[in-house]
């Protein structure tokens, strides 16, 4: 199967998944999820939520934000349920998709957002990436469109999906400048310190929460990993809004 046919199958599957999100229990959950995230960004900026949304929408950034958040919503487990929306869709309506598209959806469901550094680019073909702050061996990601706008030393929040012995990005990619990327580790460290402080206070107040310092650190790290995709979105959206309103 050529790459054009593969992409066509993926696009069709995502379109069907979006339709599925507007049905049943997922419709209300999606509204709640987007409202909470976007309202949280607006609150941190101390601006009305509609003004924040309209600013990004008018300048073409909300489409990027939607794709990123939709993938996050679609792969999230709600209320300790066994199935995310993606896995629910595959079980109930996966027969509509090609085998390749179903494999893509399953790989997307199992992927995680990470902060990546662009190490090398072959525009129109691929990019080599590795986790920010790492010196590990790079991963080559097949990427036709994104590789044309990415540059060495850029940083992105994205899902790297392993499919059929190759890597590709998910649809939602948040681009950070070199200067912004340098701020992110400090912001994440501050957020983790806030979580640790809250956990220590809870440990003092409740008898059933008597954790050691090692326990608290482990819990904080787990919470930060869980919240990382949302924190990266909040930082990206906030920085984008500030840049647009100051221009």
TrEMBL record:
Protein name from the UniProt record: Uncharacterized protein
Species annotation: Zooshikella ganghwensis
Which lineage is the organism of this entry classified under, starting from the top rank? Answer: Bacteria, Pseudomonadati, Pseudomonadota, Gammaproteobacteria, Oceanospirillales
